[in-house]
Design goal:
The complex is a heterodimer of chains A (about 110) and B (about 240). By secondary structure, chain A is mainly alpha-helical. In chain A, about 80% of the residues lie in helices and about 0% in strands. Chain A has 2 domains: about 1-40; about 45-110, no CATH class. By secondary structure, chain B is mostly helical. Chain B has 2 domains: about 10-175, no CATH class; about 190-240, no CATH class. The longest helix of chain B is centred in the middle third of the chain and has 36 residues, at about 130-165. Classes of the chains: A mainly alpha (about 110), B mainly alpha (about 240). The interface between A and B is large, with 71 and 98 residues.
Chain lengths: ~110, ~240
């Protein structure tokens, strides 16, 4: 890589890190300040809604199959259903994911 | 409605490793693709690995390589990649209430990807403050190393891997939607939250299908927030509608 490309890489890496770290630092200081003033530190309501909706958005985005086709869409729906059924029974994270991937994979391999 | 508290392992290191495992199914195939793409674009193996280690943000890494190879202006490469990563702005403030005052959290923010954020927000409320740092280091470092490992694998042997086991890249990434699904479900505790989550999910999917993958997550999340407030503002009395 040229010196110029290294500079771009370092700038992006630093910028990405600051995007992740500075807002955290800002909120941590805000919460500490509120606590030191005797009030209960609280996160803005809109932010507490935005967190879960970001996860839902990641879910929606990840639902689009790597290789979109009728089979991969059907496998996605059935794989998610299997994940949901196991989650309903176990309320855990590990087993539902394993079962979901196995069901999805089996459908893609058998009918693909 | 899920009122049952999840059962966590007593060892936060093990719990973090266990929680990070599903991420590998999503991370490694994408990282292999990136490693292969980067080397084929003219970057060296070590350079490719360093890009993954330092930037550690999937979509922006692909964009970085593509724009550098196409000879785009420096400022445009930096602005576009940071713009893609700007969705991370809301992650730190969301998890800040769960992180105790400790300077070690600051360097650990490098590990705060989309998936680690989602895991953190799901897991930390149920953990004791003393376990949170160890859990985060365990899950975060495993995810980071898997990304670096996948990149190296792709850069060194990506072409052969893709030819020999083409289904790996198609099947394993399903671990991510499955993971996100089990994080979304416990939030659907009532009608208002269910509609909010469905709105965010469907908007993101539609945006991605429409060819806007990079703006899908932030835009859909904002739609979800708007839906949440819209449902609150909706009058329940028919008389108020007229």
């Amino acid at each position: 890589m040229s010196v110029q490309t290294w500079m771009i890489l370092i700038s992006i890496a630093l910028g990405t890190y600051l995007i992740r770290a500075l807002p955290y630092l800002w909120m941590a200081r805000k919460l500490n300040k509120q606590a030191s003033q005797g009030s209960i530190g609280s996160t803005p309501v809109w932010l507490t809604i935005l967190g879960p909706t970001m996860i839902a958005a990641m879910f929606g985005s990840s639902l689009v199959p790597v290789e979109p086709s009728l089979l991969s869409w059907i496998a996605t729906v059935i794989g998610c259903s299997a994940t949901y059924i196991v989650w309903r029974r176990t309320r855990s994270m590990g087993y539902p994911i394993v079962v979901g991937v196995l069901v999805f994979g089996a459908l893609v391999v058998i009918f693909g | 409605m899920n009122t049952v508290a999840p059962t966590l392992l007593s060892n936060p290191w093990k719990q973090g490793a266990k929680d990070a495992l599903p991420l590998l199914g999503g991370y490694i195939p994408v990282a292999v693709s990136f490693g292969l793409f980067s080397v084929q674009s003219g970057f060296g193996v070590l350079e490719t690995i360093l890009v993954s280690a330092f930037i550690y943000a999937g979509a922006s890494q692909f964009l970085f390589v593509a724009m550098v190879v196409s000879g785009a202006p420096i400022w445009l490469v930096i602005v576009m990649t940071l713009l893609i990563n700007s969705r991370h702005l809301v992650y730190g403030p969301n998890i800040a209430p769960y992180l105790q005052k400790d300077v070690r959290w600051l360097p650990l923010m490098h590990l705060l990807t989309d998936q680690i954020f989602a895991l953190t927000l799901t897991r930390m409320p149920d953990m004791t403050p003393s376990d949170r740092l160890r859990w985060y280091v365990s899950a975060g470092v495993i995810a980071w190393l898997s990304w670096i490992f996948g990149t190296a694998l792709g850069a060194i042997a990506g072409e052969e891997l893709m030819q020999r086991w083409p289904l790996i890249g198609e099947v394993l990434p399903f671990a991510l939607p499955a993971l996100f699904l089990v994080m979304v479900l416990p939030r659907c505790t009532d009608r208002r939250w269910t509609i909010t989550m469905v709105m965010a999910t469907s908007t993101a999917m539609l945006l991605k299908l429409s060819g806007f993958p990079n703006m899908a997550i932030p835009a859909a999340a904002i739609c979800g927030v708007l839906a949440y407030y819209a449902i609150q503002a909706r009058p329940t009395d028919k008389g108020e509608l007229s």
